[in-house]
């Protein structure tokens, strides 16, 4: 029997938001072992979970919530992309659940991410040194908003490092390349990838019956998008395609449940940064002097802005060289 969220004892890692009957967003609580959002979907005869948080402890709470709300443990888990705040909780759900991702996401998890975890376990002092260094910066920071965000970042990193020795990194065992549908007795969900924008490969979960899209980090609500591994032009192209779907509600990778307006804001952010950085590069200006545009000063993840500027610059440089390399001698 399905029970309401009011009676769930809760988790320090997330807050539940009933997006539609049988669809529950688990909104991350900053500074805990979640970091990114997750979603629980009751398919009628099975339960689906989208993304699994940063730590095993947060994922255990997510599994408990899924079982409480739907009457069963998860049968399917979707990883929207390879970042740790969407995948490190996978071990909690196996072997009972099928773990699903795109083929490219699984390949990255099995190579780059697995190697990174091995290095972190071998030399944890490097991360602890970075935590200590950020602690010192926090003490000197006078901007209260930025100070709070830095404290959340460090708290999340500590949660991750505390969990790391117990991590059994669990890969997807079912992959797709373009589209996949899971049919339930109550609702069906479509797994869709239009390629890579935020990462080398991003998937979204579309629930046609409820007009809901669970977007991973392709859409964030009032948070700076993270552009470290991004292709900004492909990201914009993907969002343009998502707009063609019949969507009313979005569960973002970070931030509160939102509408298509958040998607439009992410498009504006990426477009604005492309224009600002291109202009600065053409004028040979110092990138460090670029400040957060007023439209985005209230957004969270402010600490990513400087690295986003650098990532955009590097992408512009790489794209320009690529176009030059493709020219014929007589062009």
What's the structural blueprint in terms of helices and strands?
Blueprint: E1 14-20, E2 23-28, E3 38-42, E4 47-50, H1 56-70, E5 76-78, H2 84-87, E6 98-102, H3 103-122, H4 125-140, H5 144-163, E7 174-176, E8 179-183, E9 188-193, E10 203-207, E11 212-214, H6 232-242, E12 249-251, H7 260-282, H8 305-325
Parallel strand pairs: 4-5, 5-6, 6-7, 11-12
Antiparallel strand pairs: 1-2, 2-3, 3-4, 8-9, 9-10, 10-11
Helix pairs in contact: 4-5, 6-7, 7-8
Report on the architecture of this protein.
By secondary structure, the protein is of the alpha/beta class. The chain folds into 2 domains: about 5-110 and about 170-320, Metallo-beta-lactamase, Chain A; about 120-165. It has helices at about 55-70, 85, 105-120, 125-140, 145-165, 230-240, 260-280, 305-325, and strands spanning about 15-20, 25-30, 40, 45-50, 75-80, 100, 175, 180-185, 190-195, 205, 210-215, 250. β1 and β2 form a beta hairpin. α4 runs antiparallel to α5 (about 145-165) and α7 (about 260-280) packs across α8. The longest helix has 23 residues, at about 260-280. The radius of gyration is 20 Å and the shape is globular. The N and C termini lie far apart (about 70 Å).
């Amino acid at each position: 029997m399905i029970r309401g969220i009011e009676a769930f004892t809760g988790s320090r890692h997330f807050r539940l938001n009933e997006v539609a009957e049988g669809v529950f967003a688990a909104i991350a609580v900053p500074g805990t072992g979640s970091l990114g959002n997750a979603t629980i979907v009751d398919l009628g005869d099975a339960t689906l979970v989208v993304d699994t948080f940063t730590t095993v402890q947060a994922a255990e709470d997510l599994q408990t919530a899924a079982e409480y709300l739907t009457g069963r443990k998860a049968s399917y888990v979707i990883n929207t992309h390879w970042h740790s705040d969407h995948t490190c909780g996978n071990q909690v759900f196996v072997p009972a659940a099928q773990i699903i991702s795109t083929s490219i996401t699984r390949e990255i998890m099995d190579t780059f991410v697995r190697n990174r975890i091995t290095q972190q376990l071998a030399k944890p002092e490097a991360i602890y040194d970075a935590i200590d260094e950020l602690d010192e910066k926090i003490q000197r920071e006078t901007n209260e908003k930025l100070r709070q965000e830095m404290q959340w970042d460090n708290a999340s990193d500590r949660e991750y490092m505390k969990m790391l020795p117990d991590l059994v990194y669990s890969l997807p065992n079912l992959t797709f390349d373009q589209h996949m549908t899971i049919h339930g007795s109550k609702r069906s969900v479509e797994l869709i990838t239009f390629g890579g924008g935020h990462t080398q490969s991003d998937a979204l979960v579309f629930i046609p019956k409820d007009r809901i899209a669970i977007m991973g980090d392709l859409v964030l609500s009032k948070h700076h998008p993270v552009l470290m591994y991004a292709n900004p032009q492909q990201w914009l192209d993907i969002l343009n395609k998502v707009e063609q779907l019949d969507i009313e509600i979005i569960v973002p990778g970070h931030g509160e449940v939102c509408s298509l307006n958040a998607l439009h804001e992410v498009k504006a952010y990426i477009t604005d940064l492309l224009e600002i950085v291109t202009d600065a590069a053409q004028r040979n200006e110092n990138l460090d002097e670029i400040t957060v545009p007023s439209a985005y000063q209230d957004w969270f993840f402010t600490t990513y802005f400087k690295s986003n500027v650098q990532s955009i610059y590097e992408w512009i440089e790489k794209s320009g060289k690529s176009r030059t390399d493709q020219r014929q001698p007589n062009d």
